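Course exercise 7: structure representation. Students receive a sequence record and must write out the corresponding structure in token form. The form below is the worked example handed out in class, using Glycosyl transferase (586 residues). Read each field label carefully; the graders check that inputs and outputs are placed in the correct fields and that the protein name is recorded exactly as given.

STUDENT ID: A-19
EXERCISE PROTEIN: Glycosyl transferase
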Amino acid sequence: MLATGAYALLGVFVCLNYWVDVQHRVSSHLPTDHSWFEWLFAHGAYSVRHLENPLFTARQNAPDGVNMMANTSLLGVTLPLAPLTMLLGPQVMYALYLGGALAATAGTSYWLLSRHLVRSRAAAFVGGGFLGFAPGIVHHANGQPNFVSNFLLPLIVVRVLRLGEPGRWWRNGLALGVLVAYQIFINEEMLLLTALACLVVVAAYAAQRPRAAWARAGTFLAAGGVGGGLALLLAAYPIWFQFNGPQSYRGLQGGVFHNWGEDLAAVVTFARDTVAGDEAVERTIGLTEQNTWFGWPLVLVALVALALLVRRSLTARIIAVLVVVFGVAAIGPKVRFNGVETGVDGPWAYVPDDLPLVEMMMPTRLSLVVAAAVGVLLALAWDALSGGGRPPVPAPRTAPDAGPAAPRAARRPRWLRPVGYAALTLALLPLVPRPLPAQQIDPPPHFITAGGWRPYVPAGRTLVPVPIPSNVHGLPTLRWSALTGQEFPIPGGYFIGPNEQGEGVFGAPNRPTSTLIYATMDADRVPPLTAEHRRQAVEDLRFWKASVVVLGANPRERALRELMTALLGPPQRVDDVWLWDVRDRA
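STUDENT ANSWER:
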């Protein structure tokens, strides 16, 4: 309870800048992602309130809609938390959940370590804290709560390690199947990374303990079959819907993620959102996600710990294998060093862009497995220094190892424990996270929040906000939908959907009118217009099934109002918005 309470306080601290003005603040680094996940909480509440299929929505990208299983929909969270979202609103729910997910991941990691790998509670606390708040995890907390929602992964790992337990194959298989099926609705990519890591762990264990592995192979495979069969049964329809349902797609256009490898210099660099971090470094090596960014003290301490533990700890040897395999795999198609792409091929240069399961993976995210391995290593090192502390809760008989054997105090120099504790502490202190940076955002127009739009938007019609939401423009107008409970559908949006070739692209394909709007915003002036532009505007309004076009306060408001007036005629001033009633034209 003390460990969980400490993690919860740290989760609140990380989100502190949001809580200063939770209704009007979003991530400074990924504001559109932040707004997307607020919209997702609203989607979960809308689906529950209206008893609609949560796997698909027509409230964004009208009239085509969005395949929610083919996007980072976080349904395993937004649906059960729907009552709280209805009560508190998506902004509060986002900030509350983000800190809670960080703390919950640290908590389940602490449980795994304290019950199955180390004897010292302090060691489990240190390792659990790193697993929940590692630099790479905190980096993703900037607008991507799906990548900090890892609280089921330690439970899945434990169940995998227990699959060979004699006499419990049925129960262990069922438990694993339920956990895997639920994780599919939280983050499939993290589940894939965990599966790959478990595969390497099992292979490394079998290579070092072949007789023990062979003796348990039958039970392990039987339990694994039960777990896989149950997971497939529970998730079969959603997975089918993801790849075959409306607005599904195959891969991303141009394999945009495939080239994102980890910079070798990033491993020894302090992450931006830690107390030792510096935003200036992003101009050199920060071109990809900060998934390792351990800082040189931790890298040095980790290497020393591995050198000391690897000879007498099976777990440490498996950690070494994980670090090497996933550290190398995270390099990507070309080796990058200190922001410069070298001419040396990385491992992904030999991986086809369209390989199933990995076609949408970012190589750099494989280094999240390295971060998890380092967290376990920190716990093992602290536990070895403490001499094991109290006797552990009995570990499962199929766990790879219960950690390094506690060295006898008489054979250990007196200076080793204080020096070891000091080294670990000094390596971790620079990585303590800072509150995530947040920026102020204007509230939606009163016309929107007070329901002034209702007389203008009958059932089956859409409200067209200007600018139309996209992955580049229209962050405030996307929030109009989220903060009104998605009561009106909107065209465009922030999502991944298919292009004409069936490949995934970000956002809706631009219509002529949306292209004109974005060009006007970029130039802050209206381009030359023709009768064809006006004809296309009416055609686009019909395609969107528009009933009203709404322009609220915007830095480009003057130019946008001039554009829409030239296309649609003079607007009305209603409350605090400019409004074009187009029901007679669309």
